[in-house]
Amino acid sequence: MEALHMHLAALAIISLLIVLFKYRFPYFVKDVLYTFRIARISWRMRHILNKRPLYTILDCFLEAAKKNPNKTFIVFEGKTFSYSEADKWSNKVGRSLWNHAPVTEGDTVALFLGNEPSYLLIWLGLAKIGCAAALLNYNVRSKSLLHCFSCCGANVLIVAAELKDAVEEVLPTLREQNISVFLLAEECDTEGMESLADKIEEASDEPLSSALRANVTIGSPALYIYTSGTTGLPKAAVITQQRLWGASSLQTVGGVTAEDVVYITLPLYHTSGFVVGFTGAIGSGATIVLRRKFSASQFWDDCRKYNVTVILYIGELMRYLCSTSKACDERDHQVRLAIGNGARADVWKEFLNRFGSISVLEIYGSTEGNISFINYTGKVGAIGRVNFLHKKAFPYALIKYDTLREEPVRDHRGLCIEAAKGEAGLLVSKITKKAPFLGYIGSLQLTEKKRLRDVFEKGDLYFNSGDLLRIDQHNFIYFHDRVGDTFRWKGENVATTEVSDVFAMVDCIQEANVYGVRVPGHEGRIGMAAVTLKEGAEFDPASVFSQVSGLPAYAQPRFIRIQDSLEMTGTFKQIKVKLVDEGFCPSAVPDPLYFLDDKEKSYVPMTQEIYHAIESGSIKL
């Protein structure tokens, strides 16, 4: 009996220790499991990258097409493409471009297309002939379109039929530069453009020789994806074959397998849509359900119809779904995992409460950056967690940052100062061979601006993320804000310099300071501009609207503030912090305010009634 009592006592003590350990280290098990999963993925990546001959995402697709030719690869508007059909169609694409376009291995082809299967299949066809693809944002026009095209060094542009008018605006310039423009249509009557769909149809679907891409290496560009950054016009970030593999593995981190169905509603010109979604699905062998544009009202119907198990999101997408009317069947779906970024804590909670037990894999990272975080614990609101091994492999830190001067705070030695726990700091990540910063194609100056030197010791080199983060007492990482001349609205980065340039073309405006302000109930910041008028001029709302309407909808400033002068720093930089804090409430701002009224197609005087309507949500932004 005494032995039994001792045994029970021992079990009680062990149980108590387990409870205390779990209380003291509640995330220990998840930390260990995540470490093992990352170690396994890292081993797989090393094995893939060391394969000879080179094994790319394309080779992964070709292997899947050979093993499971009849497996559904893409579902789009009720139509399906098997892996085999996608393989054959991309053979036709590659062959038609090889025969009719001035391209050869190592060239870049720009894609100006919307969400459709041909976007994905054209990329596969280009990869088969050793070419990289530049993914142009289909919202850009005029000067921005020309800039995006020219900076990637492409000599061929492939255009969707519905975007023909946008390209015709800049076609004279493209023709002067001897650019070949192909319209994805059966025929084309515009001089300077050729049809492409008919050429693809006529081409053979026989496999293309691997000799056509024999010189592609792990460091060769696979993609150019554009990011607004902090300096105005979009910049083309280089995605090498190695980097493409790394970013495509995020689905594997989330446990996605060949049995999953991945729903892509995000634009394919985004890293989230193309890399995390499309090439990620190739890496996991999954099926893709593609939609032209996100629709909150059709989202869950599509998920049910196509047995979707994995969805991709940005913060705004979650909010849009939560803004829909409640339905009795909104938990009736098979979605088990959501992968994305920018989920606000309150929206995240509401999303789970409404739509069921869905694992949310929140990711932090940038297209061009050399550091990323994954919230593998599911902690609501966090973007990741400090992990010893991760930090050892990819050294990073949060440093003190002066938002007024827009520069890191440095000590008497000229070195940066690490932010304290709970304090917002600028995320910087050490540039190493394992964590390189490849920069932007064709712009050494812009690349250099993202490099930060003498951070913790003289001569060291770090990547400047441009983001303020904070780490709490439990080592969870949270996004705080963006710095510099960029803000984010509706999932898009808006470069203030580019918008200011548009204001400069308005006759009545002398100068403009563009920034983003918060709106209750919305993710990110919406555009606002403080402007000064030329001497003797009056504000011309119709003229301003006419110029601004040429910008993508997400970049158009919804509010304008008329000032006598714009406040500057001692180094003649526009001060935005005070303007951002003051916002757009008429009772709080002493200057005249205007609101972009879509119905009136003009800027109208901003009233307290309009402000309350925006606050209540009766005016949609």
What would you say this structure looks like, in words?
With about 625 residues, the chain is α/β, with parallel strands linked by helices. It has four domains: about 45 residues, no CATH class; about 300 residues, ANL, N-terminal domain (Rossmann fold); about 100 residues, Roll (Luciferase, domain 3), CATH 2.30.38; about 130 residues, 2-Layer Sandwich (GMP Synthetase, Chain A, domain 3), CATH 3.30.300.30. The protein has 20 helices and 30 strands. An eight-stranded mixed sheet has the order 2-1-11-10-12-13-14-15. Helix 4 packs across helix 5, helix 9 crosses helix 11 and helix 13 crosses helix 14. The longest helix is centred in the first third of the chain and has 23 residues. The chain is globular. The model has no long low-confidence stretch (mean pLDDT about 90).
Short recap of the structure:
By secondary structure, the chain is an alpha/beta fold.
List keywords for this structure.
Luciferase, domain 3; Rossmann fold; 7-stranded mixed beta sheet; 8-stranded mixed beta sheet; EC 6.2.1.3; single chain; 621 residues; long-chain fatty acid transmembrane transporter activity; alpha/beta; 24% strand; globular
Helix- and strand-based class?
alpha/beta
Strand neighbour order, sheet with most strands: 2-1-11-10-12-13-14-15
In CATH, the topology of the largest domain is named: Rossmann fold
Tally of separate helices: 20
Kindly give the count of domains: 4
Strand fraction: 15-25%
Computed Rg: 26 Å
- Which spans have pLDDT < 50 for at least 5 consecutive residues? none
Mean pLDDT: 90
Number of strands: 30
The N- to C-terminal Cα distance equals: 74 Å
The first-level CATH class of the largest domain is given as Alpha Beta
- Spatial shape: globular
Name the CATH architecture of the largest domain.
3-Layer(aba) Sandwich
Major beta sheet, specifics? 8 strands, mixed
CATH superfamily of the largest domain: ANL, N-terminal domain
Helix content: 25-40%
